[in-house]
């Protein structure tokens, strides 16, 4: 591994800023480049009894007896003193980082989420380094983007360390070591894939809040998304050698991106940067489509919805709506729809009381009186979303009461007919509209009472279009949620 690449690893962001910042010197950076050594020594000393019983850990110097704990502690202390000496050049709040670095070895004894603890500790280096540039990441202007960036870095560590921990699952269960790999087992890949998507959103949001331009989004958000996605998809949890090199890269997955991403962020926060020149101006989307909804009975009160465009200092960005782009192939759009449907029906053990779909069903039953009298139109159904669960749960109760079951209709601007056909074959109360349905111009289906449901779909629309969609629902439907 080349010497320069050591500063690109997750535990080296401080070294990067010291190397590139003109107010620093390379002597301090060279000392800081060895900063993980006391932490690793401390971790091995505390975990020596565990390591002796784990196949991969039993070869470590302390576990195999080549180095005694009484030899290791003075070495770790000496290195810690060197780091503290460096931190004295930074604001006093940075000293808190030293204390937190000692916590991780104990986390695996009390919680199944030590990876989250580790990620939080590593990500604190971000705040330490930004403070070292005389920038307050917790100020009013910087707090929101800093929080997004901190969370993204924390989750990044959680992903890679969860995958890495699968090497020791069998031994950890026997020894009693807790980890997300032990807790989740076969669900790890699904969770890490979801977290990878979440990181992409956080990095994009951090860029939007901080006013970054294309020079940030392309290398940082784009390449990080590609790397994380490839890692989560291609890693083979049953093969140990796959953990460090899941896609054949010469370095551990994504190792450069955290350092590079962090530096991009510091550059805009702490200094006048060329990045700021790439910030686009303006906001909002295309003009609203003229709607011609069918008239409602006179008894319905007139409702006026006014759209207001907030005065934002950054452009309105739709970064994750890949399927809305004209260049997006249909197969990719359908894959995106299927993935979202899986997320709707995903239940994380011990995390939530049910899937998002079952929770949506509870809201539906609570607020819609006499649902059997309605026909339910899913406006942006994708590949089904929560609607199959809604139909199943709701009609089970309704039919038990001897009432007529609710009819559900799936519709979308991009109809996923193949997925809808599979659903309708299994559930006779679910039908679909084969032709594209534009949510901005939906007319009443018939004489039956109609309830329109919008399942997390308004992020696809501009403020003007969203206002028109709600106005149409008020004027031409009997209920919506």
UniProtKB/TrEMBL annotation:
Is Flavoprotein a UniProt keyword of this protein?
A: no
Which residues fall in a coiled-coil region?
none
Q: Which keywords fit this entry according to its UniProt record?
A: Membrane, Transferase, Transmembrane, Transmembrane helix
Q: In which pathway does it act?
A: Secondary metabolite biosynthesis; terpenoid biosynthesis
- Bilayer-spanning residue ranges: 81-106, 112-130, 194-217
The record's subcellular location field reads: Membrane
Extract the InterPro entries matched here. Answer: Prenyltransferase, SAM-dependent_MTases_sf, UbiA_prenyltransferase, UbiA_sf
Query: Which cellular component terms (GO) are annotated to the entry?
Result: mitochondrial inner membrane
Q: State the Gene Ontology terms under molecular function.
A: 4-hydroxybenzoate polyprenyltransferase activity
Q: What is this entry's stated membrane topology?
A: Multi-pass membrane protein
Q: Name the cofactor(s) required for activity, per the record.
A: Mg(2+)
Q: Hey, which family's this protein in?
A: Belongs to the UbiA prenyltransferase family.
Q: What is this protein called?
A: Uncharacterized protein
Q: What organism is listed for this UniProt entry?
A: Penicillium atrosanguineum
């Amino acid at each position: 591994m080349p010497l320069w690449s050591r500063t690109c690893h997750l535990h080296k962001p401080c070294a990067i800023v010291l190397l590139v910042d003109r107010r620093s010197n390379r002597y301090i950076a060279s000392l800081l480049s060895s900063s993980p050594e006391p932490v690793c020594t401390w971790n091995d000393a505390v975990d020596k009894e565990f390591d002796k019983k784990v196949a991969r850990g039993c070869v470590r110097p302390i576990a195999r007896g080549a180095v005694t704990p009484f030899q290791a502690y003075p070495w770790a202390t000496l290195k810690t003193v060197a780091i503290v000496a460096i931190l004295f050049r930074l604001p006093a709040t940075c000293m808190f980082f030293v204390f937190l670095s000692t916590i991780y070895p104990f986390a695996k004894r009390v919680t199944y989420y030590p990876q989250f603890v580790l990620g939080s500790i590593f990500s604190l280096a971000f705040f330490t380094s930004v403070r070292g540039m005389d920038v307050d990441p917790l100020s009013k202007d910087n707090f929101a983007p800093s929080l997004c960036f901190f969370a993204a870095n924390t989750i990044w560590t959680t992903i890679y360390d969860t995958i890495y921990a699968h090497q020791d699952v069998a031994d950890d269960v026997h020894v009693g070591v807790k980890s997300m790999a032990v807790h989740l087992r076969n669900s790890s890949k699904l969770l890490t894939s979801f977290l990878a998507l979440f990181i992409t959103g956080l990095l994009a949001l951090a860029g939007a809040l901080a006013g970054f331009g294309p020079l940030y989004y392309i290398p940082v958000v784009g390449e990080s998304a590609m790397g994380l996605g490839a890692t989560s998809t291609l890693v083979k949890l049953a093969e140990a050698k796959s953990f460090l090199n899941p896609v054949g890269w010469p370095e551990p997955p994504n190792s450069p991106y955290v350092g590079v991403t962090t530096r991009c962020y510091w550059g805009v926060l702490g200094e006048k940067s060329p990045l700021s020149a790439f910030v686009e101006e303006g906001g909002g989307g295309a003009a609203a489509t003229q709607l011609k909804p069918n008239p409602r009975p006179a008894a319905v009160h007139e409702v006026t919805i006014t759209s207001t465009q907030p005065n934002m200092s950054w452009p309105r960005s739709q970064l994750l709506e890949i399927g809305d782009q004209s260049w997006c192939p249909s197969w990719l759009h359908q894959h995106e729809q299927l993935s979202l449907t899986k997320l709707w029906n995903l239940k994380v053990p011990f995390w939530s009381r049910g899937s998002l779909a079952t929770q949506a069903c509870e809201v539906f039953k609570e607020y819609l009186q006499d649902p059997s009298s309605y026909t339910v139109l899913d406006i942006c159904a994708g590949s089904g979303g929560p609607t199959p669960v809604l139909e199943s749960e709701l009609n089970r109760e309704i039919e038990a009461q001897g009432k007529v079951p609710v009819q559900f209709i799936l519709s979308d601007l991009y109809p996923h007919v193949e997925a809808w056909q599979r659903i309708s074959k299994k559930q006779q109360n679910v039908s679909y509209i084969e032709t594209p349905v534009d949510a901005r111009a939906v007319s009443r289906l018939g004489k039956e009472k109609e309830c329109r449901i919008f399942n997390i779909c308004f992020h696809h629309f501009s403020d003007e279009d969203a206002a028109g969609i709600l106005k149409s629902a008020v004027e031409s439907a009997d209920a919506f949620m």
